[in-house]
Amino acid sequence: MGMSASLDAMWEMPAEKRIFGAVLLFSWTVYLWETFLAQRQRRIYKTTTRVPPELGQIMDAETFEKSRLYQLDKSTFSFWSGLYSEVEGTLILLFGGIPYLWRLSGRFCGYAGFGPEYEITQSLVFLLLATLFSALTGLPWSLYNTFVIEEKHGFNHQTLEFFMKDAIKKFIVTQCILLPVSSLLLYIIKIGGDYFFIYAWLFTLVVSLVLVTIYADYIAPLFDKFTPLPEGKLKQEIEVMAKNIDFPLTKVYVVEGSKRSSHSNAYFYGFFKNKRIVLFDTLLEEYSVLNKDIQEESGMEPRNDGEGDSEEIKAKVKNKKQGCKNEEVLAVLGHELGHWKLGHTVKNIIISQMNSFLCFFLFAVLIGRKELFAAFGFYDCQPTLIGLLIIFQFIFSPYNEVLSFCLTVLSRRFEFQADAFAKKLGKAKDLYSALIKLNKDNLGFPVSDWLFSMWHYSHPPLLERLQALRSTKQD
């Protein structure tokens, strides 16, 4: 009886109050669900203190314990940062933070001689202030994550000066892209007439394609040093493999990721006949700064035969050596190029653009509803930017959660297919050992709660991938 009475009371509320209540309720429901999943996984980190039998051949006890403690620290950090984020978001909504920032933006525009009719100018000031607020409130969390957690577990290679310069540079570059793109998008929505959603979608499609094209050539080098992979056996073998599968490779770069962190990665980019491959120096055994440090500590040049090295140095190299051998790097690239050959990249772009079109269409349907604006404190005006924020971030949040889960499931499927592609290239054995090494280098914990991994993991758990490779691994 009490439950139905409260539901009746809710339905008798004005529409804007119902919308606001539903948005807050959904936000906290998602937060509690995520926290429940994280606690399940945290229990695994706390209780799995010995290497399970099936991992005996893959992971030594020392690495297993290191990865367990690293993931435990990350999990604690994630809990507190997630709680802060949820409380901050709720307080901003409850105390009218969004309309306040909009009025403040209007005041700044007024000082510069721009009246309320300059809505796009006010929108840009709003965006600048909102991203500045977000950057400043996120900074302490980012500092703690980098200089406490990553530092403690041996991953951080940044100085405080480098970190702050990097953060300022990121903020400036973001504004240089965000503000012009947003002003054009708002202008298109204003003048686009009844079919503005088609033009807005086409504009965002062009912008995303341009950004993908210029990112690695013009944006990424602002933050990291890219050098062409020198001529040699590895480059030759990469070019042969690319040619064998008709991958239109033009350049291979090594990025100096080690000045930031010892985490490793590899990716490709570019459209049509202009593809480039990027390898992190931390992925390559012969480039790894950590391996060079070990050689310097040992006071000698590395020897291929290993003779003359003290037992202590041998043990140190065995335990600390980072990165993959050339054959393993080729296997990792075989997996990455599998994504291209099997059309995963194109499929992801198509899904993303279909989703983008649907969202703009629904935005066009909903933008005229004044109660949506009233729900968030906008009673006298309905700015387009605020409409985009309300509809895309809050109204679409249930749809975004479902879509995100579906894309996670699809991503895991694609990963298995890319592994199978590398296996077809005869790289199963090398990919098998590369996955183990990368898991070790990045301190990935190989035991996971089934529900947590199903909801979060875009890559299948290590054991599942190794099992799939082992089934037909060549000798």
UniProtKB/TrEMBL annotation:
<dbReference type="GO" id="GO:0007628">
    <property type="term" value="P:adult walking behavior"/>
</dbReference>
<dbReference type="GO" id="GO:0055013">
    <property type="term" value="P:cardiac muscle cell development"/>
</dbReference>
<dbReference type="GO" id="GO:0043007">
    <property type="term" value="P:maintenance of rDNA"/>
</dbReference>
<dbReference type="GO" id="GO:2000772">
    <property type="term" value="P:regulation of cellular senescence"/>
</dbReference>
<feature type="binding site">
    <location>
        <position position="339"/>
    </location>
    <ligand>
        <name>Zn(2+)</name>
    </ligand>
</feature>
<dbReference type="GO" id="GO:0006925">
    <property type="term" value="P:inflammatory cell apoptotic process"/>
</dbReference>
<dbReference type="GO" id="GO:0072423">
    <property type="term" value="P:response to DNA damage checkpoint signaling"/>
</dbReference>
<feature type="domain" description="CAAX prenyl protease 1 N-terminal">
    <location>
        <begin position="41"/>
        <end position="225"/>
    </location>
</feature>
<protein>
    <recommendedName>
        <fullName>CAAX prenyl protease</fullName>
        <ecNumber>3.4.24.84</ecNumber>
    </recommendedName>
</protein>
<feature type="binding site">
    <location>
        <position position="335"/>
    </location>
    <ligand>
        <name>Zn(2+)</name>
    </ligand>
</feature>
<dbReference type="GO" id="GO:0048145">
    <property type="term" value="P:regulation of fibroblast proliferation"/>
</dbReference>
<dbReference type="GO" id="GO:0048538">
    <property type="term" value="P:thymus development"/>
</dbReference>
<keyword id="KW-0378">Hydrolase</keyword>
<dbReference type="GO" id="GO:0050905">
    <property type="term" value="P:neuromuscular process"/>
</dbReference>
<dbReference type="GO" id="GO:1903463">
    <property type="term" value="P:regulation of mitotic cell cycle DNA replication"/>
</dbReference>
<dbReference type="GO" id="GO:0043516">
    <property type="term" value="P:regulation of DNA damage response, signal transduction by p53 class mediator"/>
</dbReference>
<dbReference type="InterPro" id="IPR032456">
    <property type="entry name" value="Peptidase_M48_N"/>
</dbReference>
<feature type="domain" description="Peptidase M48">
    <location>
        <begin position="229"/>
        <end position="472"/>
    </location>
</feature>
<dbReference type="GO" id="GO:0060307">
    <property type="term" value="P:regulation of ventricular cardiac muscle cell membrane repolarization"/>
</dbReference>
<comment type="similarity">
    <text>Belongs to the peptidase M48A family.</text>
</comment>
<dbReference type="GO" id="GO:0006998">
    <property type="term" value="P:nuclear envelope organization"/>
</dbReference>
<dbReference type="GO" id="GO:0032991">
    <property type="term" value="C:protein-containing complex"/>
</dbReference>
<feature type="transmembrane region" description="Helical">
    <location>
        <begin position="357"/>
        <end position="379"/>
    </location>
</feature>
<dbReference type="GO" id="GO:0010506">
    <property type="term" value="P:regulation of autophagy"/>
</dbReference>
<keyword id="KW-0256">Endoplasmic reticulum</keyword>
<dbReference type="GO" id="GO:0030327">
    <property type="term" value="P:prenylated protein catabolic process"/>
</dbReference>
<feature type="transmembrane region" description="Helical">
    <location>
        <begin position="122"/>
        <end position="144"/>
    </location>
</feature>
<keyword id="KW-1133">Transmembrane helix</keyword>
<dbReference type="GO" id="GO:0030282">
    <property type="term" value="P:bone mineralization"/>
</dbReference>
<dbReference type="GO" id="GO:0040014">
    <property type="term" value="P:regulation of multicellular organism growth"/>
</dbReference>
<dbReference type="GO" id="GO:0001889">
    <property type="term" value="P:liver development"/>
</dbReference>
<feature type="transmembrane region" description="Helical">
    <location>
        <begin position="77"/>
        <end position="102"/>
    </location>
</feature>
<dbReference type="GO" id="GO:0005635">
    <property type="term" value="C:nuclear envelope"/>
</dbReference>
<keyword id="KW-0645">Protease</keyword>
<feature type="active site">
    <location>
        <position position="336"/>
    </location>
</feature>
<dbReference type="GO" id="GO:0046872">
    <property type="term" value="F:metal ion binding"/>
</dbReference>
<dbReference type="GO" id="GO:0030500">
    <property type="term" value="P:regulation of bone mineralization"/>
</dbReference>
<dbReference type="GO" id="GO:0010906">
    <property type="term" value="P:regulation of glucose metabolic process"/>
</dbReference>
<dbReference type="GO" id="GO:1990036">
    <property type="term" value="P:calcium ion import into sarcoplasmic reticulum"/>
</dbReference>
<feature type="active site" description="Proton donor">
    <location>
        <position position="419"/>
    </location>
</feature>
<dbReference type="GO" id="GO:0003007">
    <property type="term" value="P:heart morphogenesis"/>
</dbReference>
<dbReference type="GO" id="GO:0006281">
    <property type="term" value="P:DNA repair"/>
</dbReference>
